[in-house]
Inverse folding.
């Protein structure tokens, strides 16, 4: 009887899986987690379920794509995705991702692949031993699954709990709207044990089966081991106790010890080579006199299985626990001998892994080779592989200096790859190194990334001062110190340090940091010529995106929306995911300012979703702040509040002045929509209070529109003198072409005149505001100007023109979906003796439907639309059918004409 997880029963578990597959057939995607301890039967259950699924040619066929994670490949970037790609049906044009690829970009490709496959048949995606999925594959899988909507896809994960327990596993982060079902496997019951025995050694009485269940807790592998080990008569004789239970490891080792020497050596060689290996390698390593006889004995003992397919001829252990028991029992000398021989046998990176496993104590030659591999990984931006190689090199280093340099380089690679959690685990080891500029630089980056700004400043300054003639080291330290200085609010120092870093040509991984800080610092300082010169250099999507963001900061929302829309549409695929998130968030703000609230809502939702998946801290705070504006303006209180609180939560984790300014502004916009003037002032208090680390750089910058919100709050609470002073201060800062802030200021000037001197005195400032509104693309502010002017005219006795303006404002606000502001326009119309226009007409499109409609109207196919919005073509088709029904049309041409 082989050492496999025997399959009997499990009818209830199979029924859950079958039900989930039926739901997927109907366009309701599902995730099922099959959970249980090692050896409890997860793999066998998954295999049986897959075997029972109708295959190609059947009327109800299912496309199956499978992978099995391996503990030995946890550090192999996209190892599981590579398996999934290799298992795709013939004719599917997908290639394995580069090890340095962005996991979210790979997830987008995987989503597109699932969308293409489900057009022919439902897709069953199975990943066994998901607790060992490599991090990049986990990120890609989670990204794809979270974006399944109306898709015919079932995802099944076989998982065991790691030592960290719930909350530490990658699937615990959730799958968005696709809530997972859990199938928890327990031990076999007495009836199932009886069925298993009948199929293998002979029938058992009910009492004998129950005794065996109690003895083993029903663990399938343990049951199978005892059925193999004990005579049938002993199993049946319930009058005598069963032998004291031995661990599975002990049972496996007893079996191995009973083999002939040749078979035993073959099993040991296979254990060193992995869970599965080419048979030729195992034979070469064990060198049995009669390979066929040795293999036959190992297979008959239930330890190994022979796997053939195509040109491959492999041997594998019947269960990972079996291989773990054999490998774990190898004495150190024997393990060293076998791994050293395996390194000579296999070659390539696998040989390096065997040499590392064989090493005992320092090995400077191997450490040097690993360092070379790590530097090649850095050059290719394979950050995780670089960290793995460099940390392994550090462990094998012959001198403390060499160990320290390699450890620092490894942590640098983790930080460059965004793996902050892993880098922080290495912080105690880095701190234990002797003082030096490289150590100070890495410690400073760790401190800055976790909000320990004061300590970080000291560390990075030490790194800069101590770099001496190391030009690259000085440039890297200056780049990171410039970012910290900007975060701390010392904009002048940030500008100077980033200039020094760029002049010295920092390492490629640090150059974007220096360039970003240089541009943003000069925007805050008002150095327009310098900003324009920096933006003129290079044609990358990142630089183009920064042009759009700077246009937004300069109050030209229409130009910003045009530039950012183009970058998101045409160049975002070549950007980092964090860069794409920030562009989408700023595009959402630009569209909010111009009045394209549906577009803003759609791009904002996408940005928030991507920020959550990418795990970016600064990006998440800023994104939630900017994308809360439309939700607030529409009175979607629950969504708006959640995003504002998320932005505020990010400032507690990383308390920098820019994040606090964005969060405070978002809170003030929410209070504005609620008509809560006192709440607006309370929200903005951190920007005008005694905390100079926040107020000083905020007062200097004109990046966030907090001053007009402050003036509106002051007007609403009756503090007219304070409002006038705020507007006077703002006038000195608005030096460029007028934008939405200038229009807001004009509206507030008119309201101030009305409150001080009556409606007649407000005519001239309102006329100025109306003239500005005709030149600036700022629909929300224009509607409020019209509403205010209309109210003043009605109050001054000019009812007819006042009512016309109120109706125009009401219509504009209704088109925006600005429910709270439209309700105030309703109240003004009622006060004028009129009934507001009745709601009605065609059903409104959701932001997701509008995003689909716009891209379809541009002539894009469903798959192209899906790629842009990170959904499948099937989801696009579902939205499109709803769009046609709501608009009463039936073709893409009609949709383009309608929009």
């Amino acid at each position: 009887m082989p050492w496999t997880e025997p399959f009997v029963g499990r009818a209830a578990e199979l029924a859950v899986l079958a039900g989930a597959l039926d739901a997927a057939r109907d366009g309701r995607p599902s995730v099922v987690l099959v959970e249980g301890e090692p050896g409890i039967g997860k793999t066998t259950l998954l295999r049986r379920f897959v075997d029972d699924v109708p295959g190609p040619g059947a009327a109800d066929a299912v496309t199956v794509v499978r992978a099995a994670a391996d503990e030995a490949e946890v550090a192999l970037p996209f190892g599981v995705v590579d398996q999934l790609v290799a298992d795709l049906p013939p004719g599917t044009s997908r290639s394995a991702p580069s090890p340095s690829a962005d996991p979210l970009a790979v997830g987008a490709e995987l989503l597109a692949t699932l969308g293409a496959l489900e057009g022919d048949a439902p897709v069953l995606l199975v990943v066994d031993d998901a607790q060992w999925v490599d991090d990049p594959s986990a990120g890609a899988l989670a990204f794809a699954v979270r974006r399944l909507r109306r898709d015919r896809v079932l995802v099944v994960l076989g998982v065991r709990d790691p030592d960290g327990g719930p909350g530490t596993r990658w699937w615990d982060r959730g799958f968005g709207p696709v809530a997972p079902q859990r199938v928890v496997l327990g031990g076999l019951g007495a009836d199932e044990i009886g069925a298993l025995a009948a199929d293998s050694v002979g029938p058992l009485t009910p009492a004998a089966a129950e005794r065996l269940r109690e003895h083993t807790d029903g663990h399938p592998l343990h049951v199978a081991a005892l059925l193999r080990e004990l005579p049938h008569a002993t199993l049946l004789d319930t009058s005598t106790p069963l032998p004291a239970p031995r661990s599975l490891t002990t049972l496996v080792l007893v079996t191995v010890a009973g083999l002939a020497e040749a078979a035993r050596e073959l099993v040991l060689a296979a254990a060193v080579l992995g869970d599965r290996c080419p048979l030729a390698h195992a034979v070469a390593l064990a060198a049995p006199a009669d390979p066929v006889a040795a293999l036959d004995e190992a297979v008959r003992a239930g330890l190994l299985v022979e796997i053939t397919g195509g040109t491959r001829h492999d041997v594998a252990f019947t269960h990972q626990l079996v291989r773990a028991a054999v490998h774990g029992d190898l004495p150190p000398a024997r393990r060293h001998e076998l791994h050293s021989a395996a390194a000579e046998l296999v070659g390539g990176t696998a040989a390096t892994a065997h040499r590392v496993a064989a090493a005992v104590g320092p090995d400077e030659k191997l450490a040097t080779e690993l360092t070379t591999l790590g530097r090649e990984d850095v050059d290719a931006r394979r950050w995780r592989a670089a960290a793995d190689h460099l940390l392994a090199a550090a462990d094998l280093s012959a001198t403390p200096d060499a160990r320290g340099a390699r450890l620092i380089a490894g942590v640098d690679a983790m930080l460059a790859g965004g793996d902050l959690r892993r880098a922080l685990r290495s912080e105690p080891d880095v701190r234990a190194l002797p003082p030096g500029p490289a150590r100070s630089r890495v410690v400073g980056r760790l401190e800055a990334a976790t909000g320990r700004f004061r300590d970080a400043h000291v560390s990075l300054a030490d790194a800069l001062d101590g770099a001496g003639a190391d030009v690259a080291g000085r440039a890297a330290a200056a780049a990171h110190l410039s970012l910290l200085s900007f975060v701390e609010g010392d904009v002048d120092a940030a500008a100077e340090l980033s200039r020094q870093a760029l002049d010295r040509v920092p390492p490629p991984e640090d150059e974007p940091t220096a360039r970003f800080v240089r541009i943003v610092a000069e925007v805050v300082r008002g150095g327009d010529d310098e900003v324009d010169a920096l933006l003129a250099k290079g044609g990358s999507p990142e630089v183009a995106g920064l042009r759009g963001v700077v246009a937004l900061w300069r109050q030209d929302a229409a130009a910003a929306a045009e530039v950012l829309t183009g970058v998101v549409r045409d160049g975002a695929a070549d950007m980092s995911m964090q860069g794409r998130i920030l562009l989408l968030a700023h595009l959402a703000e630009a569209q909010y300012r111009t009045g394209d609230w549906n577009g803003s809502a759609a791009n904002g939702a996408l940005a928030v979703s991507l920020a959550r998946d990418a795990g970016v801290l600064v990006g998440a705070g800023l994104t939630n702040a900017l994308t809360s504006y439309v939700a607030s303006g529409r009175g979607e209180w629950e969504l708006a509040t959640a995003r504002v609180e998320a932005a505020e939560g990010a400032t507690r984790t990383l308390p920098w002045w820019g994040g606090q300014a964005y969060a405070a502004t978002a809170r003030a916009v929410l209070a504005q929509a609620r008509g809560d003037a006192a709440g607006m002032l309370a929200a903005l208090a951190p920007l005008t209070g005694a905390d100079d680390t926040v107020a000083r750089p905020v007062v200097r910058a004109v990046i966030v529109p907090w001053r007009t919100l402050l003036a509106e709050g002051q007007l609403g609470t009756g503090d007219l003198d304070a409002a006038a002073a705020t507007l006077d201060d703002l006038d000195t800062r608005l030096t460029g072409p007028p934008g939405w802030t200038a229009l807001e200021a004009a509206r507030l000037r008119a309201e101030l005149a009305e409150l001080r001197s009556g409606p007649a005195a407000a005519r001239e400032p309102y006329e100025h505001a109306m003239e500005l509104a005709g030149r600036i693309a700022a629909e929300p502010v224009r509607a409020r100007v019209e509403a205010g002017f209309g109210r003043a005219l009605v109050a001054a006795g000019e009812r007819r023109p006042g009512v016309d303006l109120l109706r125009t404002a009401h219509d504009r606000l209704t088109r925006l979906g600005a429910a709270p502001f439209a309700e105030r326009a309703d109240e003004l119309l009622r006060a004028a003796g009129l009934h507001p226009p009745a709601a009605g007409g065609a059903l409104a499109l959701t932001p997701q439907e509008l995003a689909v409609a716009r891209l379809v109207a541009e002539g894009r196919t469903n798959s192209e639309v899906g790629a842009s919005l990170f959904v499948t073509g099937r989801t696009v088709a579902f939205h499109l059918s709803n769009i046609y029904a709501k608009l009463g049309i039936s073709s893409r041409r009609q949709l383009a004409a309608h929009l």
About this structure: Strands lie at 30-35, 63-68, 123-128, 153-159, 180-184, 276-278, 304-309, 312-317. Confidence is low (pLDDT under 50) at residues 163-167. The two ends are 69 Å apart (CA to CA).
